[in-house]
Amino acid sequence: MRTENQTAPLTGTRAIKDMAADWLERSDRSDWGEQNVAELEAWLSQSPAHRLAYWRVKSAWERAQRLHALHPSKHVETTRAPWMLFRPIVFRTAAVLGAVAILGLAMVFLAPRSQEQTFSTRVGGHKIISFADGTQVELNTNTTVRTKLSSHERTVVLEHGEAYFRVTHNASRPFSVIIGNRRVTDLGTEFLVRRDDSRFEVALAKGRARFEVTDGVNNPSVLLVPGDAIVEKGGSISLVQETASELTDELAWRRGLLVFSHTTLADAASEFNRYNTSKIAIADPATASITIGGTFATNNVAGFVQLARNLLGLHVQSHGNAVVISR
Amino acid sequence: MPEGSDNDRESVDCLRGGVSVNPSSLEAWFMREVWPLEAVLMQYLRQNWRDQSAAEDLLHDVYVRVYEAARVQIPEHPKAFVLTTARNLLIGRVRHSNIVPIEALADFEAIQTAIDAPGPEQVVIARDELRRLNAAMEQLPPRCRKVVMMRRVEGLSRPEIALRLGITENTVSVYLKRGMSVLADILYGSSSDAGVAKP
User: Fold this and answer.
1) Is the pLDDT of residue B107 over 90?
2) What does the pLDDT read at residue A292?
3) CA distance B155 to B152
């Protein structure tokens, strides 16, 4: 009878993976020719294992191309809408009051002449700020923004947190969001901006917007269209594509929900921690890397913990205001 | 038995015949639907197979089975198909080995339901993907990372990279090959640092 560990089980698969990477590396060389193509095809035909290993490593390499840093050389457009006419301001109170009743949210009205104001939400908070022109800024948990309005421009500074912007476009009174030395300028838009300690993200839902880095060095900028997202993490900025459903999931907080899909427990826990004063900690890396899917109310820590215990068979311990999940 | 045991052979041999799915669309299907399932699949295999060191080989066997089936006809529900293939493979192994207790079969079913339960999941998440890509990049040694970024993201030629970094083109090749390999493992989630104890 065979036993499971009779031979080193990784050798075959590993060796094929290594050969596949070798072929891929060679195919990337400038002297790669038809002769080589034929050789590669011969190797691929030898076994499905070869073909699969090659496809796999090749597809990762192709995906890696999406990791475009926003390099100045890649940026073409730097045009900006000229500011022209001043447009009178109209209150749209009725519609806004309706929204208050339906959503039960804290609503704030901006007086037309206000100079600069600060708005914040606490952990678990949710607030909508309505501008006189119909523009709305919806704040997610633990968020602070400063608004600066003048007759010729509208500016919102996102100090930290996450906000969804629905902008009434007005070319003569442009709307921009400042995030450190990044700027998003509306060209008729709905978009999301998130700023945490570890990451920064802009996702465009509708219309057009311009994203700019304003660090005074190269000032790269890019025109965003629906589906585009800017993600900045670990010092590099990338432009990625999001599908409509991904964006819907990302905006689920506007409905008081968190939607996870192939999300690691570590990421899911840190999402819950954004909304709740009781904090979830994941004890070990193996547990942290388990991926889950599902929809939860942002405050449903109990439900999440229950899933970890019952469905994933993990250990859960409560220490006062903290829950520790481990193997 | 580096290439899978005898009891897996029959599914390979009986499909040597006609190919009805065009290879490039099969490749695209794998890229779009199958590779992104690797993390889930690997987790499933590790949870349900006692010998952790065999997980990578099991994964490979699942891919071969999926490939053989998809050559004939692309499955309509990729995730369900891939996971069912994995489950069937494990069941087959249990029946032939006498090593894993039979009650494990019940667990295969339970976990299958668990994985399916959360509802329609998106297979590829652009943001997750980018996070994984960034994570993969960060895990590369600094020089290797630099070379990969220059070649793949900035699109520089190999001689130019060699010149800028003061290394030979051969060294550039070595870094690229390593980068390609590691990127695939981390992007698709089967990298060995994800919790497997190596003997």
Assistant:
1) no
2) 79
3) 5
Check A49 against B57: CB less than 8 A apart. no
> What number is the ipTM of this complex?
0.72
Radius of gyration, CA atoms only, chain B: 19
pLDDT digits (tens, 9 = 90+) for A71-88: 333 322 222 222 222 222
Q: How many CA atoms lie within 13 A of A45 on its CB side?
A: 7
Intra-chain end-to-end CA distance of chain B, in Å: 17
- pTM comes to 0.43
Residues B153 and B176: beta-carbon distance below 8 Å: no
Give the pair of three-digit tokens for residue B67.
Answer: 């490939």
**Residue B110 and residue B106: Cα distance in Å, rounded?**
6
- Average pLDDT over every residue of A63-76: 48
Q: What angle do CA A188, A190, A184 make, to 5 degrees?
A: 75
Identify whether the C-beta of residue A24 lies closer than 8 Å to the C-beta of residue A54.
yes
Rounded to the nearest angstrom, the minimum Cα separation between B176 and chain A is 7
Report the C-alpha gap between B168 and B72 in whole angstroms: 46
- Residue of A66, A127, A130 whose CA lies nearest to A95: A130
Nearest residue of A to residue B158, measured between CA atoms? A29
Contact A48 B12 (CB under 8 A): yes
